[in-house]
Structures are given as structure tokens and as C-alpha cells.
Amino acid sequence: MTASISEIHQLFIAAGQKICTDTRKLEKGAIFFALKGPNFNANELAEKAIEQGCSYAIIDDAAFSSVAKTIIVKDVLETLQALANFHRKTFSIPFLGITGSNGKTTSKELINAVLSKKFRTLATEGNLNNHIGVPLTLLKVTKEHEFAIIEMGANHQGEIDMLCRIAEPDFGVITNIGKAHLEGFGGMEGVKKGKSELYKYIAEKKGKIFLHGDDEILSELSSANDKVTYGTNKLYDVVGKINTSSEQVEFAWKTKEKAGDLAKCTFIKTNIIGVYNYHNLLCAACIGNYFGVNEVDINNALANYQPTNNRSQLQLTANNKLILDYYNANPTSMRAAIENFANIDAKNKMLILGDMLELGADAAKEHTQIVELLHEKKLDSYYLVGPIFSSVTNTKTFKNSEEAAGFLGKEQLKERIILIKGSRGIKLELVLPVL
Questions:
Q1: How far, in Å, CA of 219 to CA of 143, rounded?
Q2: 3-state secondary structure of 312
């Protein structure tokens, strides 16, 4: 059978808004979307999905259309995206889109922690922020929700614009623009163009952005936007200051009307490592303030937030103190993490750094610059993991994490504070058991 997006949406609501894309995680009564990938064709699993209790299967291969309760469409992925957009249009609650080269997931979690003090929120789970994850997130919005926070990731130009057309955010924030996914974006200028697609969409929709006013690149790109600003300038809508001597981020904020009170403010002590997270915290305070969350609730939300998923996360083992930041890495975030670590007042500091992936032709240069930074900061106790680091230096390098774990296990490290930072593909978690 065939069906329009409107008809599929009716079936979706009747199914309790349950969607499945993986036959290993089927829910009875859900609608199965037979997505295709480079190494799989889920059309082949449509019959299995129906047999295991799915109410319908959406397919785009006519060879499988004879199975009962199948709906054949031109393209399953495009149908999923169109359904998500149709569903989003049925809501008038605020939708906030968030992207950036670094810090977007942490910022999303902080913003959600703050806004949930006042609203029933829905936020992107984990990093489901791509052309499949964004639609799946949108399809989880229900009548019970009062605010939606949608994270958007991209590794090439045009992707953020596409995600905006699906999610239609009324508000937007770009955490920063740095050296991430250089290969896909075609260099730094490509990153700027790609990430700023969120600003362009919000301007087109006559929505509002939240701007880190101290960031010259973002300020330049947002000239056409209606904006709420945050940063260190007393003329910004929300003004902040940081205690740079603290290992975990301590900061204070006030609205510009009360900026004079900052000098006597008590710092909010957070559980987040890294001064580079200060602006993520300030962003969350700014957004919470704009939407009417009271100051005490904002401060409590930020003070009590516990980082997870190996992002700026502190972990104590029987022998050492670990700073886990190996969920992802690019030259901008790696440099920020190293500089922050260099400024921590502690003895016996050590770094375990993994390759930064998706840098294309810039890979060797960027990794060489990281090694040079270690020497510049006099951080002599370090180990480098991955084939790219191994290609630019032959000092303290390992081809992979298994090799590194084997060596470090014999070192029997104790009473160290260790920064662990690298791209997820390097699997630095394999070294944790020996630390």
C-alpha cells in the first residue's frame, strides 16, 4: 500500500509515537522504517519486523511490498525526515537549535538542566544529532512537552541548513566555530559557512539567537540576526566572570542591569573540568534567564550538573585522578584542553592524547602543532596514541590504544592527574583499566 505523510502521521500517532529502525530493538506496535546504509538494506527485514509485532513497515524496495502491513515510499529516509517535519509543525512550543564545533552536547545538557527547572523539556539524547538522529528526536515530542532542545551536528556544508528545514527552530545557538571536520567542510572557511547556516535560517525565520559576544567570528557571522548576548562585556544581556584558579569551573553571572553586582557575587562551583566550558555554562544561564527561569534555579541547575559520556569528566581511580575528555577531539578542543591542563596547579601531571580524526590534508600539520604545544607548555610527561601522532614523531607514541594499555600497565602509575583526550575512534577507553 501507499500513504501520504499526513496518513503516515496518523498511523504514527495511533502507534503511540513509537518508531523502530533496528530489528534488534523492536517495540510491539511500533512503525518500522527500513533505512538503508552502505552495508545493509533494512527492506530485507520488513517481514521480520511485522512478524515480531510492528504495526507497519515503511519500505522503498518494491520487491518486499508483498508483505502485509508494508507501506511503500520513494525513499525511507526522506519519508522519516518529512514525517518529523510534519510532526514538528503540529507544535507551537519553543524549539531551540544548537550546533558548534566544540561543546554543543555539553551545552545542550546544561541548557536542558536549566530549562527543565521551569518547563517539561525534550532534548536530544546522547549525540543523535545527524540526518537520522534529528528526525528521531523530533518524533519524540509529545503534547506533554513545553520546550524542545535540538542538537545539530554536521561534517559538511549544507547539512545544518537541511536539519534546520526539518526541525524549524525558532531560537538558535552556535557554541563556537573551530577546526573540526576540516576534511568534510573543505577547510576552516567551509566550517564557518556550514555552521553559520543555523544563523541564516533563524534570520530567515525572524527568530532569535543567543550569541557569545566575546567570539569575534560568531559576532561577525550574526550581524543580520536578532540576538541575546552573553560574555564579559558589561553591555551584554548576561555578563559573567570566571575564577581561573579553580580546577573545576567556578563562575558568576548577572544580567546587564545588575552587572555591577558581579564584584561581590559568590561564585557558582560546578562539577565541570576545563575553563573552556565557562562559556557553555554562561550560555545556559543566558538562555534560562531569557525564558524566565529564576536565578536561584539556574544556579542550582548548573552547580548540580554532573558531566557524563567522557566529556570534561573527572574520575577517581584507586591510584590516579583522571580527566576524561575522549568522546571527541579536534585541533581547537585539543588545544583548549591542553592549555587548561597546563594551568591546573597540581603535581605529577600526565597526558594521554589520541589522534584527531577527519582532518584530511591538514592532519599531519595539526598533530605536529599539538606536539609543539606540549613542549611549549613544558608538559613533558605525555603519551601519544594513534597512527597520525606516530607519523609525526617517534617519541612516546603508540600505534593504538591496545599497545598503549600494555605499556602503561607495566608502569604502575600512581598519584597522577591524567588528561585523556582524543577522537572516539582511537578507543582511549582501553587504557582506563590500567590507570
A1: 36
A2: coil
The domain made up of 5-77 has a fold known as 3.40.1390
Topology, domain 313-434: Protein-Tyrosine Phosphatase; Chain A (3.90.190)
pLDDT at 183 over 70: no
Strand ranges (DSSP E) for 8-146? 19-20, 31-33, 36-37, 40-41, 56-59, 70-72, 95-99, 121-123
Taking residues 236-264, report their average pLDDT: 89
Over range 311-316, report the average pLDDT: 84
* Domain spans of the chain, in order of start: 5-77, 91-304, 313-434
Write the CATH number of the domain with boundaries 91-304.
3.40.1190.10
**Per-residue model confidence as pLDDT tens digits over 64-114:** 888 889 999 999 999 999 999 999 999 999 999 999 988 889 999 999 999
Q: How far apart are CA 193 and CA 358, in angstroms?
A: 18
Number of CB atoms found within 10 A of residue 38's CB: 4
45, amino acid identity: L
Q: Which residue has the higher pLDDT, 244 or 5?
A: 5
pTM of the predicted model, to two decimals? Answer: 0.86
Quick one: cell of 349?
Answer: 601531571
CA distance 406 to 18: 45
